[in-house]
């Protein structure tokens, strides 16, 4: 009976794992097949890989899209880390009733559906003449109540004696932040960087609205527009999907521990 | 002493001022503008005050009703299935002696690293009429004729639900797993000695112990599902007809696909705000009582 239970358990987990992994295998096999083979469900490697890659680079500006995505994700992440860690530190270390109240108000923004603010944001950026630029994508997404909360939570376990020691050494309050807090909190920064980078890299709705011309588009926008054409060429789409997914998979496997820590860090 | 406290409080404000101002500018200010906009109507940037006109239009708008129905359907069908699946998988993975544990955990979590657009397009190709999924079902003799997944209003919704479940089950599972690892093993030992079955232990120990995390994931998933956009746009583009369209997509279409009517779009967006507010209130009440 016990053995039967163990077999059932493994059978269930194996099926769930196979279902989870299947689309990954599907996109890798898909890269090597023609579009018509893909929609006919051919599940074996073909010989179209180089052909697909060449046609993708002819039809879409994937190199530029990759650089656009990278620029937005990296700069956006750096700004998020800076702004949100400063705020999280400020809210936690210099805690007062007034700041607690302000923080409570900021938290409300987490409940605001993006669809409810995107139209005014679109009009704001069009007034400022900033539409169709990386700046338009980065500015509204770089400061989030969630990330401030994340840093605040992690600051709770920051040893405050270090700050006292720094004050004795004559460091001013900002220097305490840059010279003591930032180096001590490296693991928190790493975890925050990973989840922020991922969400920037994968962001779709706001870039779709803010970026209007082909040469400004990010990778998800390119994949989406290739796939929404009347007769989508799945061979090249699979290549584009792999290019989009590879960086995030790499980050996950290289930094698995920080990745999971970043995800869980806010519920501690 | 008092002087230094005031000074340190002022320095504290320096730290929080700019980030707070940015959130006010890019979240709260647009929320207020959206509200004002919801009383205006017109094409593009030319609009005039119409009072509650948009709100009465909303009540008799069949497209809005359809989008609202779909969004709520996804919410009440998909979220419970996904959270329950996540709990069961986490429970099974929560035994240190389990072989292949690391492999299962990584495999089931891996969907979370894909972009919403990419996985949606993958699902679209998997569920093509002559596609691999139909082929599999036919080889297993579950069906005789291929199902036109994305052309049928009911099956298209099923595909959307399957897709979201694929993407997010592992995400929730990780939260549960980490919460379950904090449960003292001696609790289970004591229960075993008392003769409680594994099944019983799951419902009487595991679930009550991770309840706060279940509430947390329920709130996150509810919020995410109410804002569903990427999947629907990229798998079915709201079709067939408008059978899979969500409220977010309807707002997008009203603003950027049909002849733009920002005022009415803002009104529709306030429908989500109201739903989010009601659900948040309910969830906090339920969560609050249990504490």
Automatic annotation (TrEMBL), chain A:
* Alphabetical UniProt keywords: Cell membrane, Membrane, Transmembrane, Transmembrane helix, Transport
Where is the protein found, in the record's own terms? Cell membrane
Question: What is this entry's stated membrane topology?
Answer: Multi-pass membrane protein
Annotated ABC transmembrane type-1 domain ranges read 66-255
Record Gene3D superfamilies: MetI-like
**Would you say which domain of life the source belongs to?**
Bacteria
- Mind listing the GO biological process terms from this record? transmembrane transport
**Spans traversing the lipid bilayer:** 12-29, 65-90, 102-122, 128-152, 189-214, 234-255
GO cellular component term, pick one: plasma membrane
Which InterPro entries does this UniProt record tie to the protein? MetI-like, MetI-like_sf
Question: Can you tell me which family this protein belongs to?
Answer: Belongs to the binding-protein-dependent transport system permease family.
Protein name (Swiss-Prot/TrEMBL): Lactose ABC transporter permease
Q: What is the lineage of its organism?
A: Bacteria, Bacillati, Bacillota, Bacilli, Bacillales
Q: Which gene encodes it?
A: lacG2_2
Automatic annotation (TrEMBL), chain B:
The scientific name of the source species is Paenibacillus montaniterrae
Taking every annotated instance into account, which residue ranges of this chain make up the domain ABC transmembrane type-1?
68-283
Concerning PROSITE patterns, the annotation shows: ABC_TM1 (PS50928)
Keyword Cell membrane (UniProt):
yes
- Which CDD domains does the record cross-reference, listed alphabetically? TM_PBP2 (cd06261)
User: Could you state one GO biological process linked to this protein?
Assistant: transmembrane transport
Pfam families according to UniProt: BPD_transp_1
Q: Which InterPro entries match?
A: ABC_transporter_permease (IPR051393), MetI-like (IPR000515), MetI-like_sf (IPR035906)
Q: What residue intervals traverse the membrane?
A: 12-32, 72-94, 106-127, 202-220, 262-282
- Cellular localization per UniProt: Cell membrane
Tell me a GO cellular component.
Answer: plasma membrane
What keyword terms does UniProt attach to this protein?
A: Cell membrane, Membrane, Transmembrane, Transmembrane helix, Transport
Task: Output this protein's name.
Answer: Lactose ABC transporter permease
The entry sums up its family as follows: Belongs to the binding-protein-dependent transport system permease family.
What membrane topology does this protein have?
Multi-pass membrane protein
